Structures are given as C-alpha cells and as structure tokens.
C-alpha cells in the first residue's frame, strides 16, 4: 500500500453520545467493520476501535471526499450531533489524544492504551493497515506511552470499575464495607471492578462468569474474592447481593427484570458495552440501575487533580503531531521523486541501449566508451530532474498535496510489461531481435508511451 493519501475518521464517543448511541455504533465487531470499509470505493486502508466509551473508524483514500463517503453510514441510527467526522489532521491529533487518555471518560486512565494496541493487532491480522495508518497508530501509541511515563496524567486516575465503586459508596444507605457485592464478568473491566471492591473490604465478594474456570482463576488471583460462580444461577446470586457491577462482553442482556424478582434492595452498575442490564429493570421496586453515563460526576471530581498534567500532554501532542506531519510530507515527496527518477531511469536505459547499438554498428566500443555514454545519460537526468526534485520537496513543505499527487500520477512507472535489452547483447541489425529484446517497431511504440501517458494525464486534469 502506498503512503500517499489522506486519513478520514468518524467517532461516536461519550463526550457527545449516550450509552445507547455508542452501543448502536458498535453493533458490528471490528473485523466486520474494517472488511466492509475496505470494500468501499477508493479505500486502501481501514481501522476500527471499539471500547466501552467509543466506537470509531478510520480510512485512507487518495481523495478526502472518498473517505467521507466511505464513513457516511458508519452509525446510521445515531443522531447527527453525536457523530463526529474528522479530516486528516483532526484524525491524527484525535488518535494521539485517545491513546494519551485525554479523550477518556476517566481522564488519563490506562486501559485505553491496551485497548488501542489490541485493535491495531486485530487490524494487522485483517490486513487492513498500510503504511499511512501504521505511522499514525504507532505515533499515537508512542504518545500514549510518553504521556504516562513523563507526566502524572494517570496518577490518581480511576478505572470505570473503581468509579463504579465510588458511585456505590456515595449512594448506598449503609457503609460499603457491610455490603455483599457481585461482579458479573471476569475480563479486564470485571477484574478492575473486583479489585476495586476488594480494596474497600466489602463483606462478601462473588465473581460470576459464563466460563466458570475464568471466574475461579480470578478468585485465586485477587485476594478478597470469596467465591466464583457461573451465570446459570443468576436469580440466586442477585437475591443476596447489595451491589452488582456488570462488565461482560455479551451482545445480549445478561440481567433483566425476570432475574430480579427476589432481589429486594439492589444497586446495579452496568459498565459493559453493549449493556448487560435491561434498563427496564430500573422500574422494579428497590432496584436502582446505573450505566456509564452516571459515572460522569464521579470521574469529573478526579479529573480536576490531573489538569496540569493534561496541559503537559497537550504540549507533547503538539510536538509529536508536527513531527508526524513532517514525516508524512517527506515520505510523500520522496515517493513522487522516486517515481520520477524511476521513470527517467527506464527511459535512460532504453535510449542508452539504442545509442550503443547504433555506435557498435559503426565499430567496436570499448568499456570506457560505454561508461562515457552511461555517465552522460546519468548527468543529463541529474541536471534535468534537479529543479523538479526541489519543487516537490518545497511542495511537501508547503502542504501543496495537489502538486505531489499530480507528480505521482504523471511519473508512476508502469514498465513491468516488457524488458529493456542489454546494450552488450544488442545486434547491430534492426531486424534481428535478441532474446529479451525488442524490434524497432516495438521500440517505436514504447518510445511514445511515456509522453502519451503524460498528455492524457494533463488532459484529464
């Protein structure tokens, strides 16, 4: 895949969208999303990121308009105000902010960096990432690591799991230490929730998971977990729990009203995406259901402690953003220059071969004479392309992508269909064609190929 092109992005995230809208935008898994995007006209690369708080997609196209069209129906059931469309530079900066934790519900949280890395691995496995997105994503991950190593952005940051525990502590009508707690889900978020509950020393802590072995493993790894269970006895588990934190990856509700008939006074905090708890359960007497949107007030209080670090990270992103843009400019200019020299090299080899053939027809040539002809041709190419080379580098520095793209189209070499004869093997006869060589008729047709392509391109433009 070429590095030339532009990135277009789309995001449905907690800062604009509700939990329901993020859930709607995440209806397909990332593998399905990138496969669908790669089938769109003009799309050469694709990437998707889905977490509890966001659903995003990015594509690379030669034309930004193609990128916008490819992403138009990314979230068809989400209101326009909740969907953020991003151009090339906005997409690059946004990816860095996401990796650094500046776009997270919990400012500076660490989980997003691991989620981004796993999404990159998934895209690599799908073959959807080329050099353009590779550079952008590796830069974003680099920024995320720098932010956490060089600033205090994640000091005191709470995970969604610990934010859920803070919310429970604030709203329970009795000390949380006296509560019986249930965590549903033994994945990354469930583990964080279990650790947060264990740290406040709740009276009882049970972890339930579809695969019981995973829950049992977690109960052995985290001190303070009293028991592990499957999801089959959910009614019984809920009947004895005061606090329930759900964090599974189930595409369907794990808990609904039918499970809560004997639950009594129960607080359910759903941090899963898509949701684990049917919102209708909130209508039952004694049952209180919270979701990710309700954690905003908890996380806002902790965010104030890291504002200074966030400013440092913003400065860091500005610096890394400029470096990334400069790298893209160099790469795109170098591609155009490389194409230009490759096209010139082909013409040189062909014409030198023809000239030497004619000279040898007049008498034997020495190696030194052949080298003189080659050197003359090289010197001509160097002098003729010196000014265009400087112009292309200047165009890249000035963000003149029209000139860069035009140069790449004009000089895109397409010379793999025929071979250039070696001057040493060429016959002086115009009718004898050595193996791998061409007749004069073939040569005359090919001689016009490059100018014809240039004329056609200029006419199209």
From TrEMBL:
<dbReference type="InterPro" id="IPR018214">
    <property type="entry name" value="GluRdtase_CS"/>
</dbReference>
<feature type="compositionally biased region" description="Basic and acidic residues">
    <location>
        <begin position="435"/>
        <end position="455"/>
    </location>
</feature>
<dbReference type="Pfam" id="PF00745">
    <property type="entry name" value="GlutR_dimer"/>
</dbReference>
<feature type="region of interest" description="Disordered">
    <location>
        <begin position="416"/>
        <end position="461"/>
    </location>
</feature>
<feature type="domain" description="Quinate/shikimate 5-dehydrogenase/glutamyl-tRNA reductase">
    <location>
        <begin position="167"/>
        <end position="298"/>
    </location>
</feature>
<comment type="similarity">
    <text>Belongs to the glutamyl-tRNA reductase family.</text>
</comment>
<dbReference type="InterPro" id="IPR000343">
    <property type="entry name" value="4pyrrol_synth_GluRdtase"/>
</dbReference>
<comment type="function">
    <text>Catalyzes the NADPH-dependent reduction of glutamyl-tRNA(Glu) to glutamate 1-semialdehyde (GSA).</text>
</comment>
<feature type="site" description="Important for activity">
    <location>
        <position position="94"/>
    </location>
</feature>
<keyword id="KW-0560">Oxidoreductase</keyword>
<dbReference type="InterPro" id="IPR036291">
    <property type="entry name" value="NAD(P)-bd_dom_sf"/>
</dbReference>
<comment type="pathway">
    <text>Porphyrin-containing compound metabolism; protoporphyrin-IX biosynthesis; 5-aminolevulinate from L-glutamyl-tRNA(Glu): step 1/2.</text>
</comment>
<feature type="domain" description="Glutamyl-tRNA reductase N-terminal">
    <location>
        <begin position="10"/>
        <end position="151"/>
    </location>
</feature>
<keyword id="KW-0521">NADP</keyword>
<dbReference type="InterPro" id="IPR036453">
    <property type="entry name" value="GluRdtase_dimer_dom_sf"/>
</dbReference>
<dbReference type="GO" id="GO:0019353">
    <property type="term" value="P:protoporphyrinogen IX biosynthetic process from glutamate"/>
</dbReference>
<feature type="binding site">
    <location>
        <begin position="51"/>
        <end position="54"/>
    </location>
    <ligand>
        <name>substrate</name>
    </ligand>
</feature>
<dbReference type="InterPro" id="IPR015895">
    <property type="entry name" value="4pyrrol_synth_GluRdtase_N"/>
</dbReference>
<keyword id="KW-0627">Porphyrin biosynthesis</keyword>
<protein>
    <recommendedName>
        <fullName>Glutamyl-tRNA reductase</fullName>
        <ecNumber>1.2.1.70</ecNumber>
    </recommendedName>
</protein>
<comment type="subunit">
    <text>Homodimer.</text>
</comment>
<dbReference type="InterPro" id="IPR015896">
    <property type="entry name" value="4pyrrol_synth_GluRdtase_dimer"/>
</dbReference>
<feature type="binding site">
    <location>
        <begin position="185"/>
        <end position="190"/>
    </location>
    <ligand>
        <name>NADP(+)</name>
    </ligand>
</feature>
<feature type="binding site">
    <location>
        <position position="104"/>
    </location>
    <ligand>
        <name>substrate</name>
    </ligand>
</feature>
<feature type="domain" description="Tetrapyrrole biosynthesis glutamyl-tRNA reductase dimerisation">
    <location>
        <begin position="312"/>
        <end position="412"/>
    </location>
</feature>
<dbReference type="Pfam" id="PF05201">
    <property type="entry name" value="GlutR_N"/>
</dbReference>
<dbReference type="InterPro" id="IPR006151">
    <property type="entry name" value="Shikm_DH/Glu-tRNA_Rdtase"/>
</dbReference>
<dbReference type="InterPro" id="IPR036343">
    <property type="entry name" value="GluRdtase_N_sf"/>
</dbReference>
<dbReference type="GO" id="GO:0008883">
    <property type="term" value="F:glutamyl-tRNA reductase activity"/>
</dbReference>
<dbReference type="Pfam" id="PF01488">
    <property type="entry name" value="Shikimate_DH"/>
</dbReference>
<feature type="binding site">
    <location>
        <begin position="109"/>
        <end position="111"/>
    </location>
    <ligand>
        <name>substrate</name>
    </ligand>
</feature>
<feature type="active site" description="Nucleophile">
    <location>
        <position position="52"/>
    </location>
</feature>
<dbReference type="GO" id="GO:0050661">
    <property type="term" value="F:NADP binding"/>
</dbReference>
<feature type="binding site">
    <location>
        <position position="115"/>
    </location>
    <ligand>
        <name>substrate</name>
    </ligand>
</feature>
């Amino acid at each position: 895949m070429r590095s030339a092109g532009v990135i277009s992005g789309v995001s449905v995230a907690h800062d604009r969208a509700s939990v329901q809208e993020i859930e709607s935008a995440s209806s397909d898994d990332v593998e399905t999303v990138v496969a669908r995007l790669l089938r769109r006209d003009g799309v050469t690369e694709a990437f998707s990121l889905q977490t509890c708080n966001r659903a995003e997609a990015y594509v690379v196209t030669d034309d930004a308009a193609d990128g916008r069209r490819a992403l138009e129906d990314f979230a068809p059931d989400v209101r326009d105000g909740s969907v953020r469309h991003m151009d090339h530079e906005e997409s690059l900066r946004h990816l860095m902010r996401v990796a650094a934790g500046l776009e997270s519900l919990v400012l500076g949280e660490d989980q997003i960096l691991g989620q981004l890395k796993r999404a990159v691995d998934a895209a690599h496995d799908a073959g959807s990432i080329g050099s353009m997105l590779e550079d952008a994503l590796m830069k974003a991950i680099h920024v995320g690591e720098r932010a956490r190593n060089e600033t205090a952005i994640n000091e005191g940051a709470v995970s969604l799991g610990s934010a859920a525990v803070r919310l429970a502590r604030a709203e329970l009508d009795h000390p949380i230490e006296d509560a019986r707690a249930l965590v549903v889900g033994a994945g990354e978020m469930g583990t964080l929730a279990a650790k947060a509950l264990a740290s406040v020393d709740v009276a009882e802590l049970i972890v339930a998971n579809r695969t019981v072995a995973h829950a049992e493993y977690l109960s052995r790894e985290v001190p303070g977990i009293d028991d592990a269970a499957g999801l089959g006895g959910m009614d019984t588990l809920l009947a004895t729990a005061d606090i329930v934190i759900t964090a599974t990856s189930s595409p369907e509700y794990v808990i609904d009203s039918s499970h809560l008939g004997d639950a009594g006074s129960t607080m359910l905090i759903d941090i899963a995406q898509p949701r684990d708890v049917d919102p209708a359960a909130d209508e039952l007497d004694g049952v209180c259901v919270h979701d990710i949107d309700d954690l905003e007030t908890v996380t806002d209080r902790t965010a104030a402690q890291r504002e200074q670090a966030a400013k440092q990270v913003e400065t860091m992103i500005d610096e890394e953003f400029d470096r990334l843009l400069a790298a893209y400019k160099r790469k795109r200019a170098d591609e155009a220059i490389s194409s230009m020299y490759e096209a010139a090299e082909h013409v040189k080899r062909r014409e030198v071969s023809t000239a030497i053939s004619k000279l040898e027809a007049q008498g034997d040539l020495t190696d030194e004479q052949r080298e003189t002809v080659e050197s003359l041709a090289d010197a001509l190419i160097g002098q003729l392309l010196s000014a265009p080379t400087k112009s292309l580098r200047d165009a890249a520095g000035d963000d003149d992508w029209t000139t860069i793209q035009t140069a790449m189209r004009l000089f895109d070499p397409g010379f793999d269909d025929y071979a250039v004869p070696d001057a040493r093997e060429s016959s002086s006869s115009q009718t004898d064609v050595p193996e791998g060589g061409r007749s004069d008729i073939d040569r005359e047709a090919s001689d016009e190929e490059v100018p014809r392509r240039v004329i056609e391109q200029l006419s199209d433009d």
